[in-house]
Amino acid sequence: SSRQALEQARVAVEELDDMKAVVKRLEEENTELRRQARHTEKEQRSLCSRAEGLQEERLLAEGQGLREQIQEQVTRMASLEVSGGTVATVGGAGGCA
Questions:
Q1: What is the pLDDT of residues 56-92, one digit of tens each?
Q2: ∠ CA 40-45-46 to the nearest 5 degrees?
Q3: Are the beta carbons of 90 and 84 closer than 8 angstroms?
Q4: Which of 19, 43, 53, 97 is 20–30 Å from 71 (CA)?
Q5: What are the angstrom distances between the C-alpha of 89 and each of 18, 19, 83, 97?
Q6: C-alpha to C-alpha distance for 89 and 74, rounded to whole angstroms
């Protein structure tokens, strides 16, 4: 009977040691996953920041293109006013309001 109790105790100790090893492995895995999550979060913030910067650059370039188009229109209108001789005709013909 005491041999059985000792054997059961030994088996229980082995199971406990196995469980401790599993817990330790899971804790290490959890730590690594948390590290990866922090790294991924930093990368995501960096990518969002870059995307915002690129969008801002695109909008600035678009704005510059529009300014150039407006300037070309103004130059054409001025040219038409000079060659046509009358400002009212050009202005009334559908220029920018």
A1: 999 999 999 999 999 999 999 988 887 766 555 545 4
A2: 95
A3: yes
A4: 53
A5: 94, 92, 12, 14
A6: 15
CA-to-CA distance for 81 and 89, rounded, in angstroms? 8
Instruction: Give, rounded to a whole angstrom, the gap between the first and last alpha carbons of the chain.
Output: 105
> How far, in Å, are 6, 8, 9 from residue 2 at the CA level?
6, 10, 10
Count of residues making up the chain: 97
Distance between CA atoms of residues 95 and 30, nearest Å: 67
Q: Cβ(81)–Cβ(87) under 8 Å?
A: yes
Q: Which of 1, 23, 27, 20 is nearest to 12 (CA)?
A: 20
- Tokens standing for residue 79: 């040219």
